[in-house]
Amino acid sequence: MSLDEYKRKRRFEATPEPPPKLEKKAGHRFVVQMHRASRLHYDFRLELDGVLKSWAVPKGPSLDPADKRLAMQVEDHPVSYFDFEGNIPADNYGAGSVMVWDLGTWQPLSPVPVSGKYVPGTDAEANAMLAKGDLKFRLKGKRLNGDFALVHIRSRKAGSKGNEWLLIKKHDEHEVEDYDIDHYDSSVLTKRSMDEIAGDEASAEWRSRPGGGRGKLKAAWLADAVAKLDQQKAGKKTSAKKVQPQSAQSSTEEKKTKRPKLKSA
Ligand code: MN
Which of 166, 221, 251, 264 has its CA 20 to 30 A from that of 5? Predict the structure, then answer.
Protein backbone atom coordinates (compact mmCIF):
# COMPACT_ATOMS: atom_id res chain seq x y z
CA MET A 1 0.00 0.00 0.00
CA SER A 2 1.36 3.37 -0.91
CA LEU A 3 0.12 6.94 -0.94
CA ASP A 4 2.85 8.10 -3.35
CA GLU A 5 0.43 8.90 -6.16
CA TYR A 6 -1.89 10.72 -3.76
CA LYS A 7 1.11 12.78 -2.59
CA ARG A 8 2.43 13.44 -6.09
CA LYS A 9 -0.89 14.88 -7.31
CA ARG A 10 -1.32 17.41 -4.53
CA ARG A 11 0.31 20.52 -3.07
CA PHE A 12 -0.47 20.30 0.63
CA GLU A 13 0.32 23.94 1.26
CA ALA A 14 -2.54 24.82 -1.11
CA THR A 15 -5.25 22.26 -0.38
CA PRO A 16 -7.16 21.54 2.86
CA GLU A 17 -7.03 17.80 2.06
CA PRO A 18 -5.25 15.59 4.64
CA PRO A 19 -1.56 14.68 4.27
CA PRO A 20 -0.50 11.27 2.91
CA LYS A 21 -0.17 9.36 6.17
CA LEU A 22 -0.46 5.57 6.28
CA GLU A 23 -2.73 4.37 9.08
CA LYS A 24 -1.40 1.56 11.28
CA LYS A 25 -4.71 0.43 12.75
CA ALA A 26 -6.90 -1.85 10.65
CA GLY A 27 -10.33 -0.30 10.25
CA HIS A 28 -13.25 -1.10 8.03
CA ARG A 29 -14.98 2.17 7.39
CA PHE A 30 -16.33 3.34 4.08
CA VAL A 31 -17.24 6.74 2.75
CA VAL A 32 -18.96 8.04 -0.35
CA GLN A 33 -18.04 11.62 -1.16
CA MET A 34 -20.04 13.65 -3.63
CA HIS A 35 -17.46 15.69 -5.49
CA ARG A 36 -18.47 18.70 -7.54
CA ALA A 37 -15.27 19.06 -9.56
CA SER A 38 -14.95 19.77 -13.28
CA ARG A 39 -17.51 16.97 -13.50
CA LEU A 40 -19.86 15.94 -10.73
CA HIS A 41 -19.07 12.43 -9.48
CA TYR A 42 -19.09 10.33 -6.35
CA ASP A 43 -15.93 8.96 -4.76
CA PHE A 44 -16.40 5.54 -3.24
CA ARG A 45 -13.77 4.58 -0.65
CA LEU A 46 -13.18 1.45 1.40
CA GLU A 47 -10.70 1.38 4.29
CA LEU A 48 -8.27 -1.52 3.90
CA ASP A 49 -4.69 -2.05 5.10
CA GLY A 50 -4.25 1.52 6.34
CA VAL A 51 -5.50 3.35 3.25
CA LEU A 52 -8.79 4.09 1.51
CA LYS A 53 -9.11 2.07 -1.69
CA SER A 54 -10.87 4.53 -3.99
CA TRP A 55 -13.07 4.59 -7.06
CA ALA A 56 -14.66 7.56 -8.83
CA VAL A 57 -18.24 6.71 -9.77
CA PRO A 58 -19.64 9.21 -12.32
CA LYS A 59 -23.32 8.35 -11.70
CA GLY A 60 -22.89 7.43 -8.05
CA PRO A 61 -23.80 4.18 -6.31
CA SER A 62 -27.22 2.62 -6.68
CA LEU A 63 -29.32 0.28 -4.56
CA ASP A 64 -30.92 -1.13 -7.71
CA PRO A 65 -29.21 -4.40 -8.76
CA ALA A 66 -30.18 -3.58 -12.36
CA ASP A 67 -27.77 -0.61 -12.31
CA LYS A 68 -24.18 -1.42 -13.10
CA ARG A 69 -22.29 1.73 -12.24
CA LEU A 70 -18.98 2.47 -13.88
CA ALA A 71 -16.33 3.00 -11.19
CA MET A 72 -12.87 4.22 -12.16
CA GLN A 73 -10.25 3.10 -9.68
CA VAL A 74 -8.11 6.03 -8.56
CA GLU A 75 -5.13 6.37 -6.25
CA ASP A 76 -5.37 5.15 -2.66
CA HIS A 77 -6.29 7.94 -0.26
CA PRO A 78 -5.19 8.39 3.37
CA VAL A 79 -7.66 7.10 5.94
CA SER A 80 -8.05 10.62 7.35
CA TYR A 81 -9.78 11.53 4.08
CA PHE A 82 -12.70 9.56 5.53
CA ASP A 83 -14.59 12.60 6.79
CA PHE A 84 -13.15 15.28 4.54
CA GLU A 85 -15.81 17.75 3.53
CA GLY A 86 -14.99 21.15 2.12
CA ASN A 87 -13.52 22.98 -0.80
CA ILE A 88 -10.42 22.20 -2.82
CA PRO A 89 -9.26 25.58 -4.16
CA ALA A 90 -9.11 26.38 -7.88
CA ASP A 91 -5.96 25.30 -9.70
CA ASN A 92 -5.53 22.31 -7.40
CA TYR A 93 -6.03 18.66 -8.32
CA GLY A 94 -9.75 17.86 -7.91
CA ALA A 95 -10.65 21.53 -7.41
CA GLY A 96 -14.25 21.88 -6.28
CA SER A 97 -16.51 21.01 -3.37
CA VAL A 98 -16.62 17.72 -1.51
CA MET A 99 -19.63 16.49 0.49
CA VAL A 100 -19.72 13.43 2.72
CA TRP A 101 -22.63 11.67 1.05
CA ASP A 102 -22.52 8.46 3.06
CA LEU A 103 -20.50 6.96 5.90
CA GLY A 104 -20.39 3.62 7.62
CA THR A 105 -18.58 0.35 7.95
CA TRP A 106 -17.98 -2.48 5.51
CA GLN A 107 -16.89 -6.06 5.62
CA PRO A 108 -15.48 -8.30 2.94
CA LEU A 109 -17.67 -11.25 2.01
CA SER A 110 -16.19 -14.66 1.53
CA PRO A 111 -16.08 -15.41 -2.21
CA VAL A 112 -17.71 -18.77 -1.52
CA PRO A 113 -21.36 -18.45 -0.46
CA VAL A 114 -22.69 -20.74 2.26
CA SER A 115 -26.11 -22.24 1.37
CA GLY A 116 -26.56 -19.58 -1.26
CA LYS A 117 -25.80 -16.69 1.13
CA TYR A 118 -22.70 -14.56 1.38
CA VAL A 119 -20.93 -14.69 4.73
CA PRO A 120 -18.28 -12.34 6.17
CA GLY A 121 -14.75 -12.93 4.93
CA THR A 122 -11.25 -11.84 5.91
CA ASP A 123 -8.96 -9.00 4.82
CA ALA A 124 -6.78 -11.61 3.10
CA GLU A 125 -9.82 -12.66 1.09
CA ALA A 126 -10.58 -9.01 0.34
CA ASN A 127 -7.08 -8.48 -1.03
CA ALA A 128 -7.30 -11.68 -3.07
CA MET A 129 -10.69 -10.59 -4.48
CA LEU A 130 -9.30 -7.14 -5.31
CA ALA A 131 -6.34 -8.69 -7.12
CA LYS A 132 -8.70 -10.98 -9.00
CA GLY A 133 -11.01 -8.10 -9.86
CA ASP A 134 -14.17 -9.30 -8.13
CA LEU A 135 -14.56 -7.83 -4.64
CA LYS A 136 -17.71 -8.76 -2.75
CA PHE A 137 -18.56 -6.77 0.35
CA ARG A 138 -21.34 -5.71 2.70
CA LEU A 139 -22.05 -2.09 3.64
CA LYS A 140 -23.63 -0.69 6.79
CA GLY A 141 -24.11 2.96 6.06
CA LYS A 142 -26.68 5.69 6.54
CA ARG A 143 -27.81 5.46 2.92
CA LEU A 144 -26.11 2.42 1.47
CA ASN A 145 -26.72 -0.98 3.02
CA GLY A 146 -26.46 -4.58 1.93
CA ASP A 147 -24.26 -6.62 -0.34
CA PHE A 148 -22.33 -5.21 -3.29
CA ALA A 149 -19.65 -6.23 -5.75
CA LEU A 150 -16.91 -4.29 -7.49
CA VAL A 151 -16.02 -6.07 -10.70
CA HIS A 152 -12.99 -5.18 -12.79
CA ILE A 153 -13.80 -4.93 -16.49
CA ARG A 154 -11.62 -4.98 -19.54
CA SER A 155 -12.45 -1.93 -21.59
CA ARG A 156 -12.31 -2.18 -25.38
CA LYS A 157 -11.95 1.57 -25.59
CA ALA A 158 -8.67 2.78 -27.05
CA GLY A 159 -6.46 4.40 -24.46
CA SER A 160 -8.18 2.70 -21.55
CA LYS A 161 -6.04 2.71 -18.42
CA GLY A 162 -7.44 -0.61 -17.26
CA ASN A 163 -8.92 1.08 -14.18
CA GLU A 164 -12.57 0.49 -15.02
CA TRP A 165 -14.75 -1.45 -12.61
CA LEU A 166 -18.48 -1.86 -12.16
CA LEU A 167 -20.17 -1.21 -8.82
CA ILE A 168 -23.17 -3.52 -8.56
CA LYS A 169 -25.78 -4.02 -5.84
CA LYS A 170 -26.49 -7.67 -5.05
CA HIS A 171 -30.03 -8.89 -4.54
CA ASP A 172 -31.04 -8.71 -0.88
CA GLU A 173 -33.53 -7.03 1.43
CA HIS A 174 -31.79 -3.66 0.95
CA GLU A 175 -32.25 -3.41 -2.81
CA VAL A 176 -34.40 -0.56 -4.12
CA GLU A 177 -35.93 -0.63 -7.57
CA ASP A 178 -35.34 2.51 -9.67
CA TYR A 179 -33.08 4.00 -7.01
CA ASP A 180 -32.74 7.75 -7.57
CA ILE A 181 -29.55 9.16 -6.07
CA ASP A 182 -30.68 12.75 -6.73
CA HIS A 183 -33.18 12.43 -3.89
CA TYR A 184 -30.24 12.45 -1.50
CA ASP A 185 -28.47 15.74 -1.92
CA SER A 186 -27.29 16.64 1.58
CA SER A 187 -24.30 15.74 3.71
CA VAL A 188 -24.81 12.86 6.16
CA LEU A 189 -22.19 14.55 8.32
CA THR A 190 -23.44 18.15 8.44
CA LYS A 191 -26.80 18.04 6.57
CA ARG A 192 -25.47 20.81 4.33
CA SER A 193 -26.25 21.06 0.63
CA MET A 194 -23.42 21.26 -1.86
CA ASP A 195 -24.06 25.00 -2.33
CA GLU A 196 -23.89 25.52 1.43
CA ILE A 197 -20.57 23.66 1.58
CA ALA A 198 -19.23 25.66 -1.31
CA GLY A 199 -20.41 28.90 0.27
CA ASP A 200 -21.92 31.58 -1.89
CA GLU A 201 -18.63 32.99 -3.16
CA ALA A 202 -16.96 29.68 -3.89
CA SER A 203 -20.17 28.40 -5.40
CA ALA A 204 -20.39 31.34 -7.80
CA GLU A 205 -16.73 30.93 -8.62
CA TRP A 206 -17.29 27.30 -9.51
CA ARG A 207 -20.25 28.10 -11.74
CA SER A 208 -18.32 30.79 -13.54
CA ARG A 209 -15.49 28.43 -14.44
CA PRO A 210 -15.52 27.42 -18.10
CA GLY A 211 -17.02 23.94 -18.38
CA GLY A 212 -17.66 23.90 -14.64
CA GLY A 213 -20.01 21.00 -13.97
CA ARG A 214 -23.74 21.53 -14.28
CA GLY A 215 -23.71 25.29 -14.37
CA LYS A 216 -23.63 26.45 -17.97
CA LEU A 217 -22.75 29.98 -18.91
CA LYS A 218 -26.08 30.91 -20.39
CA ALA A 219 -25.81 34.61 -19.65
CA ALA A 220 -23.67 36.47 -22.17
CA TRP A 221 -22.60 39.09 -19.61
CA LEU A 222 -21.27 36.33 -17.37
CA ALA A 223 -19.47 34.62 -20.22
CA ASP A 224 -17.79 37.93 -21.01
CA ALA A 225 -16.66 38.32 -17.42
CA VAL A 226 -15.18 34.83 -17.48
CA ALA A 227 -13.43 35.45 -20.79
CA LYS A 228 -11.88 38.59 -19.31
CA LEU A 229 -10.82 36.63 -16.25
CA ASP A 230 -9.18 33.97 -18.40
CA GLN A 231 -7.21 36.66 -20.23
CA GLN A 232 -6.08 38.12 -16.92
CA LYS A 233 -5.12 34.69 -15.66
CA ALA A 234 -3.05 34.08 -18.76
CA GLY A 235 -1.07 37.22 -17.98
CA LYS A 236 -0.80 37.23 -14.21
CA LYS A 237 -2.23 35.46 -11.23
CA THR A 238 -5.54 37.10 -10.40
CA SER A 239 -8.13 36.23 -7.80
CA ALA A 240 -11.32 34.99 -9.40
CA LYS A 241 -13.24 36.57 -6.54
CA LYS A 242 -12.79 40.00 -8.08
CA VAL A 243 -15.20 39.25 -10.91
CA GLN A 244 -17.95 37.62 -8.90
CA PRO A 245 -21.28 38.41 -10.49
CA GLN A 246 -23.22 40.61 -8.08
CA SER A 247 -26.14 41.83 -10.13
CA ALA A 248 -29.73 40.63 -9.80
CA GLN A 249 -29.05 38.39 -12.77
CA SER A 250 -26.73 36.22 -10.73
CA SER A 251 -29.52 35.09 -8.45
CA THR A 252 -31.66 34.23 -11.48
CA GLU A 253 -28.78 32.21 -12.84
CA GLU A 254 -28.41 30.47 -9.51
CA LYS A 255 -32.06 29.41 -9.44
CA LYS A 256 -31.76 27.98 -12.93
CA THR A 257 -28.70 25.93 -12.19
CA LYS A 258 -29.46 24.87 -8.65
CA ARG A 259 -30.47 21.26 -8.16
CA PRO A 260 -34.03 20.87 -6.92
CA LYS A 261 -34.27 20.58 -3.16
CA LEU A 262 -35.57 17.15 -2.45
CA LYS A 263 -36.05 15.08 0.65
CA SER A 264 -32.90 13.88 2.33
CA ALA A 265 -32.22 10.42 3.66
MN1 MN B 1 -13.20 12.95 -6.79
Answer: 166
Q: Residues with Cβ < 8 Å from 6, sequence gap 6 or more?
A: 20, 75, 76, 77, 78
Q: How many angstroms is it from 56 CA to the middle of ligand 1?
A: 6
Nearest to 36 by CA among 68, 9, 60, 52: 60
Distance 35 CA to ligand 1 centre (A): 5
Q: Residue 224's Cα: distance from chain center in Å?
A: 31
For residues 60 and 69, what is the distance between their CA atoms, to the nearest angstrom?
7
pLDDT-derived band at 247, boundaries 50, 70, 90: very low
Q: Please give the distance, rounded to the nearest whole angstrom, from the Cα atom of residue 228 to the centre of ligand 1.
A: 29
Q: What are phi and psi of 68, to 5 degrees?
A: -110, 105
Ligand 1 centroid vs 247 CA: distance in angstroms?
A: 32
pTM of structure: 0.74
